[in-house]
TrEMBL record, chain A:
Keywords: Copper, Membrane, Metal-binding, Transmembrane, Transmembrane helix. This is Cytochrome c oxidase subunit 2. One of its GO terms (cellular component) is membrane. Its main location: other. The lineage of its organism: Archaea, Methanobacteriati, Methanobacteriota, Stenosarchaea group, Halobacteria. The keyword Transmembrane helix applies. The chain crosses the membrane at residues 9-30. PROSITE patterns: COX2 (PS00078), COX2_CUA (PS50857). One of its GO terms (molecular function) is copper ion binding. It is found in: Cell envelope. PANTHER family: CYTOCHROME C OXIDASE SUBUNIT II, NITROUS-OXIDE REDUCTASE. It comes from Haloarchaeobius iranensis. Residues 55-167 form the Cytochrome oxidase subunit II copper A binding domain. InterPro entries: Ba3_CcO_II_C, CcO_II-like_C, Copper_CuA, Cupredoxin, NosZ/Cyto_c_oxidase_sub2.
TrEMBL record, chain B:
Pfam families: COX1. The keyword Kinase does not apply. Keywords: Electron transport, Heme, Iron, Membrane, Metal-binding, Respiratory chain, Transmembrane, Transmembrane helix, Transport. It comes from the Archaea. Residues 23-520 form the Cytochrome oxidase subunit I profile domain. One of its GO terms (molecular function) is cytochrome-c oxidase activity. One of its GO terms (cellular component) is membrane. PANTHER family: CYTOCHROME C OXIDASE SUBUNIT 1, CYTOCHROME C OXIDASE SUBUNIT I. Belongs to the heme-copper respiratory oxidase family. It comes from Haloarchaeobius iranensis. This is Cytochrome c oxidase subunit 1.
UniProtKB/TrEMBL annotation, chain C:
Residues 1-37 are annotated as: Disordered. It comes from the Archaea. This is Uncharacterized protein. Keywords: Membrane, Transmembrane, Transmembrane helix. The chain crosses the membrane at residues 45-65.
């Protein structure tokens, strides 16, 4: 099999490109510390969220110094709680699950973006910076009212954060 | 190169009729799909809303299924039937079998297609508004899944037919290499058999019985993972017919010869091996799948770039060969010597150019953690409208301009209109896809009727959402007009008189099959390795999903999109037809 | 040579140079034959190296500016 020398060169460069891509992703994972959503959130019965210790009353709770957990339920066609309120300059872990069909949970204009699958809990930890407001959209078709499914993430100054905020619906 | 070379239709009239029939179904789907496409382009940008937003999802389901399944795959079977018959110079072993699988595919498509379209008629209560991906626990009417099963069985039998024809040819020609086009058909079908295992299990063992009420629950992550087991290789099922046209027809149109037959074979073998163990890259941000499995899927996906990167070189080199034979000179000056006034050539060349751009957005999609940036945003349909929506669709339309005269013995109605059509598609797609990619980066979601939200606005780094919307709407309109021009041109061609001498030959490659090792033609070997790779990539993640969430999930109701029960809906149809009880 | 129309008189035929059925009838014929040995795809090489450069630059921009420069990096 004789291959033209230019083609051999291109084959080499293609492999270089591929290895370069994989190396970049690996750098993002190991060097920067970007992790993927995985199976650490565990499983739930979507019909029994009412009895779940956390999802029965979705909301934000403080779990450590500057560390918060936000339990979020997606259902046709709302997010609970709405808005989700967290203090600025904190580490927030979202636990998101669905009470019915497949939804999406995307904090618009950011990297916080996960699928929400009934039976599964998506665990997403992010570092929250300055105060501000972000929209949240459901980005997976979930029924005829899908386009109206939105929420809000409100990042408030540390001093203004009231622990009951995120828990209210 | 005899004088007045006979056409495919002269030499194989029965086969030509079947190819035309497959193309007829494909182009009907193309027309309907394009109609739903323009509805969406105008609706989601809020330029013009003709249908209620709840029906948007009926249109979206129809657009996806009609174009990505019916148009592409019917074109594929037509093209592949032509290619096998032509390159082996041999009729199917039993043409009635060929008729049977084509009929089966048509019936299946009709069942699924009608079930989807009934979603527009509220009184009937039948619906399949579950989109192209039909993620449980949204539940379509059982007829939707049934039609899909019938269709896929039809495609399996098509593969059987082509393998059988080849085996008989092999008995008569034991020492010959597999002709390139047949090689491409056989490798594509091996990939398809492996790929469809996933969707067949999802539909036959879970979704269909569940929609009929035979089982109560399914595991949504499991059926979703099985869908994507099929859902990625299916994109190569769309692409490989386009590759066949690029490798075997485009060099001829350019006035040259294929640069390397051996590399074409290597490329198709790489697709057999790597197309399937990658599906999890559609699930990078799914809960319930460990990061390690996602990383393995990514590595496989990145290496799957290789056959396409090699194709870029071989195909461009074949064009350059044509251009230089036509007197082209200079490092880039040869580009002007290409036959740009031939719509078949220009369409395929522009399709290839867009594939290079789509290749880039695909590389982003493939990169595991960068998926957070673009997952389920408008970026993704922006990407696949460049790939399946242009690289594949435009190549298929362009190929038709060359193939159709040989299937009908009639000249094309208008070559200039054909040229306008392919250029308009390119321009329309450039606008639409660009705006979709950019909007995606701003976080605009895909698959939604009204991406205008009450509580917030999208922040645009430059320009405005209004400008992007206009770009999308204008692009979509151009694409729709282009489709009409294509269909109109073909229809009017049927009015042309029958003539002789439209037959075409395909030139021999510069470097032929004899330059490649015979092991490339060993179909059993490649199928075996491919299966091993699939097992390695999927056994552990599927096992973990079943172990954690159960074979039938952790509970949870079905959410039927049909308003009425299964059989009530059927009664309503019969009543409307005047045959009700 | 099949064109189905009265053709311009052919000179020396280039093998495989039959006119495409979808091409304009006035399209010019290939004028010479290039074998595998005579043909160096240097134009292709130039194009594809340009493509490589574009891909590399765009990738770096997308990954390091668009993605890593974005808010709310997922860290767990």
């Amino acid at each position: 099999m004789h291959i033209h020398q230019y083609e051999k060169l291109w084959l080499g460069m293609s492999l270089l490109l591929i290895v370069g891509f994989i190396a970049t992703i690996t750098y993002g994972a190991v060097g920067v510390g970007v992790t993927m959503i995985d199976d650490s959130g565990g499983n739930v019965d979507p019909n029994a969220l009412d009895e779940h210790p956390e999802f029965s009353d979705p909301g934000v709770e403080k779990v450590g110094e500057n560390e918060y957990e936000a339990y979020v339920v997606a259902r046709q066609f709302i997010f609970q709680p709405d808005p989700i309120v967290v203090p600025a300059n904190s580490t927030v872990t979202f636990y998101v699950t669905s009470a019915d069909v497949v939804h999406g949970f995307s904090v618009v204009g950011t990297n916080a973006n996960t699928m929400v699958i009934p039976g599964e809990v998506a665990e997403v930890t992010v570092e929250v910076g300055e105060p501000g407001e972000y929209g949240i959209v459901c980005h997976e078709y979930c029924g005829a009212g899908h386009h109206s499914m939105e929420g809000m993430l409100r990042v408030v100054p540390e001093g203004e954060y009231n622990s009951s905020d995120g828990g209210e619906q | 190169m005899s004088v007045d070379q006979e056409t495919f239709a002269d030499r194989y009239p029965q086969e030509a009729e079947l190819v035309r029939r497959a193309f007829l179904v494909a182009f009907t789907a193309l027309g309907l799909g394009a109609l739903f496409g323009i509805f969406q382009a105008l609706h989601r940008t809020n330029v013009l809303r003709i249908i209620p937003s709840t029906d948007y999802y009926t249109a979206l389901t129809a657009h996806g299924v009609l174009l990505a399944i019916v148009f592409t795959i019917f074109y594929l079977v037509g093209l592949y039937q032509w290619a096998v018959t032509r390159s082996l110079d041999r009729s199917p072993t039993n043409i009635n079998f060929t008729r049977a699988w084509l009929t089966l595919m048509t019936v299946g498509s009709a069942i699924t297609g009608v079930t989807i379209l009934l979603g527009f008629v509220d009184q009937i209560g039948i619906s399949a508004d579950v989109l192209f991906t039909f993620y449980a626990p949204l539940q379509a009417h059982p007829l939707f899944y049934t039609g899909l099963v019938v269709f896929i069985i039809g495609t399996w039998l098509a593969g059987v037919d082509w393998f059988r024809t080849w085996l008989h040819w092999k008995q008569d020609n034991p020492d010959e290499r597999i002709p390139l086009q047949t090689f491409m058909v056989l490798t594509t079908m091996i990939m398809w058999y492996i790929a469809t295992i996933g969707v067949a299990i999802a539909v036959l063992f879970f979704l269909l019985p569940w929609s009929l009420g035979l089982i109560d629950t399914v595991n949504p992550l499991l059926t979703r993972t099985l869908f994507w087991f099929f859902g990625h290789p299916v994109v190569y099922f769309w692409l490989l017919p386009a590759y066949m046209l690029w490798y075997t027809v485009l060099p001829k149109l350019a006035g040259g010869r294929l640069f390397s037959d051996p590399l074409a074979r290597v490329v198709f073998v790489l697709f057999v091996l790597l197309s399937t163990p990658v599906g999890i890259h559609h699930q990078y941000v799914d809960p319930g799948i460990a990061e390690g499995f996602k990383f393995i899927a990514m590595t496989n996906t990145m290496f799957l770039l290789l056959p396409s990167l090699l194709t870029a070189f071989t195909v461009v080199a074949s064009m350059e060969h044509g251009a230089r034979q036509r007197g082209g000179e200079g490092l880039f000056g040869w580009l002007t010597a290409l036959p740009w006034r031939d719509p078949a050539f220009t369409g395929m060349a522009l399709a290839g150019l867009m594939f290079a751009a789509g290749g880039f957005s695909g590389m982003i999609n493939a990169g595991m953690n960068i998926n957070y940036l673009i997952h389920n945003t408008l970026w993704v349909p922006g990407h696949f409208h460049l790939t399946v929506g242009t690289a594949v669709a435009l190549t298929m339309m362009a190929g038709t301009y060359w193939l159709w005269p040989q299937l009908t013995n009639r000249r094309l109605y208008s070559r200039p209109i054909g040229l306008l059509q392919v250029v308009m598609w390119f321009g329309g797609m450039a606008l639409m896809s660009n705006s979709m990619h950019v909007a995606g980066l701003y976080g605009v979601p895909r698959r939604t009727a009204e991406p205008q939200y009450a509580g917030f606005d999208f922040n645009t780094a430059f320009g405005s959402m209004a400008e992007l919307n206009i770009q999308l709407a204008v692009g979509g309109t151009l694409l729709f007009v282009s489709t009409l021009l294509f269909l109109g041109n073909l229809t009017l061609s049927l009015g042309n008189p029958k003539v002789e001498g439209l037959g075409q030959s395909l030139p021999e490659p510069l470097s032929g099959a004899e330059d490649s090792p015979r092991v490339l033609d060993n179909m059993r070997l490649w199928a075996g390795i491919a299966l091993v790779l699939v097992v390695l990539a999927y056994v552990l993640p599927l096992g973990a999903i079943i172990q954690n969430g159960g074979l039938f999930g952790t509970g949870g109701d079905a959410y039927p999109v049909s308003v009425l029960g299964t059989f009530d809906g059927l009664d309503a149809v019969l009543e409307l037809l005047g045959v009700g009880r | 040579m099949s064109r189905g129309v009265p053709a311009v008189e052919d000179e020396e035929e280039v093998p495989g140079s039959e006119q495409s059925v979808s091409a304009p009838v006035t399209q010019e014929e290939p004028e010479r034959e290039l074998t595998h040995e005579e043909f160096d795809p240097k134009g292709t090489l130039a194009l594809i190296l340009t493509y490589f450069a574009v891909l590399a630059i765009m990738w770096v921009f997308m990954y390091f500016v668009e993605f890593l420069g974005n808010d709310l990096i997922v860290v767990g």
